[in-house]
Amino acid sequence: MVTATSNQPASSWSFAELSPAETQYLTHGYHRYPAKFIPQLVRQLVEEYSMPGDRICDPFGGCGTTLVEAKLANRLSFGYDINPVAVMITRTKITAIYPEALSKRSAYWKDELEKSAHVTEEISLPPNSDRLLYWFGETNLKRLIQIKSILNKETDPAIRRFFFCCLSHVLKNCSYWLTTSTKPQKDREKIPESPDNAFVSHLSRMIRRNAEFYEEIQKFKPDEPPAFMYKADAQHLPVPANCVDLVVTSPPYSTSYEYPDIHQLTALLFGFCETLRDFREGFIGCKTGDLHRDEDLTDSKASKAIARLRIADARLGDAINSYFVDMNHVYSEMYRVLRKGKRACIVIGDTELRGVQIPNAEVAIHQMRKVGFVLEKKIQRPVPGRVLAPYRDKHNGRFTSAGNSEAKKIYSHEYILILRKK
Ligand SMILES: C[S@@+](CC[C@H](N)C(=O)[O-])C[C@H]1O[C@@H](n2cnc3c(N)ncnc32)[C@H](O)[C@@H]1O
Predict the structure, then answer these.
(1) Which atom of ligand 1 lies closest to the CA of 59?
(2) Which of 25, 162, 298, 393 has the fewest CB atoms within 10 Å, i.e. the most exposed one?
């Protein structure tokens, strides 16, 4: 049983008073990303558990919320993610571009795009574009390929990445992907937006945000706090031992979001992978791929949940078993890279699958204690419904809407676990 609790009221960690716009300030609104952190929550953890100049690491970096907030708080940071789309978004979000240069290059390329608009029919589709055609239709797909190849001629890598991040964000709007869904679901009634309009209007928003971010970063000049983002598996961090002052992260949840499915539009259009099958490699918490791990879990709560799930659905049981085995490796890595006496802050929620409770937080505590961590606090944090859908599909455990007849309300809180390396 967990006895350590926070002295702080849980409500002070809920950030329920914030409007969605208030969580999208500076570069945070560049790109949608499922289950991203509330930036204010990260800032509170960073300020409470580290000092200016400290090294912060996020092994599941996602779209870079931790890195942006670490930079704004004058900490050095490095993030990792297996998802190349996450790496592209994060690198864009942590890079403040000189606003005048960005405006000039944007005006130039907007002109070039306008000039090219009438020659789309000359664009030939790459081999194996069936899936892209399925999502975009021929007209939008050809134009998107053309826009990408024009923007690819930008010679400044930071500005080119800025344009690509913008284009990636609008892909869903320009496709038949059901607007309200994080699952790959086609909406045959949808009228996809024109790539030009969608790109140009999001670009203006991003340019304004970059200028604000640039301004904010000026206060640190000439020593802007560095931030680095790389593609890597959190089970094997390319980081030397004993050099991190604070880990702030939220792990992927077992079978809640299928990130490779969600980011397939960007991954396929930008050529981050040949096929969706390749793209799924290495993601923790995915239900596909090799789900067999030759390791036993020592936690009875985890083992019981897996045994019950295996009765209902053997493959789902294997998926959860693989998830916990993989997360065990991640916690060992966190322990290795942290300096003695330093902390890991893990934001994690429980799930339910096929009527079986999956006690992610308790299993995380058990696994982290086994590798040598000491639990300092377990903060139960209410999650406002508008931030994270509280409804889950009864069968597959994924987030869903209240309108789904298979929906079950189970998600009204999550945990912030604070553990210290002995
Ligand atoms: C809950 S999200 C993190 C979101 C992040 N806190 C943010 O604010 O954007 C979990 C992330 O874990 C990543 N992930 C899944 N498997 C991974 C692995 N083996 N190594 C590193 N990252 C992985 C996913 O791509 C996803 O970005």
Answers:
(1) 21
(2) 298
Residues 6+ apart with CB under 8 A from 151: 109, 160, 163, 164, 167
Kindly tell me if the per-residue pLDDT of 220 is higher than 50: yes
pTM over 0.90: yes
Whose CA is closest to atom 5 on ligand 1?
Answer: 62
- Tell whether ligand 1 has an atom less than 6 A from the beta carbon of residue 349: no
Q: What is residue 58's three-state secondary structure?
A: strand
Q: Is 63 in the pocket of ligand 1 (CB under 6 A)?
A: yes
38 Cα to the center of ligand 1, angstroms = 15
Rg for the chain (alpha carbons), in Å? 22
10-85+225-261+284-421 — its CATH code? 3.40.50.150
Instruction: Give the pLDDT confidence of 234-286 residue by residue, as tens digits.
Output: 999 999 999 999 999 999 987 668 888 899 999 999 999 988 888 988 999 88
Per DSSP, 26 falls in state G
Ligand 1 atom showing the smallest separation from residue 249 Cα: 6
Contacts 24+ apart (CB under 8 A), 335-338: 335/368, 335/371, 335/372, 335/373, 335/421, 336/237, 336/241, 336/242, 337/57, 337/237, 337/239, 337/240, 337/241, 337/242, 337/243, 337/244, 337/247, 338/242, 338/244, 338/245, 338/247, 338/421
- In the chain, ranges of CATH 3.40.50.150 domains: 10-85+225-261+284-421
Report whether the peptide linkage leading into residue 222 is cis, meaning its omega lies within 30 degrees of zero. Answer: yes
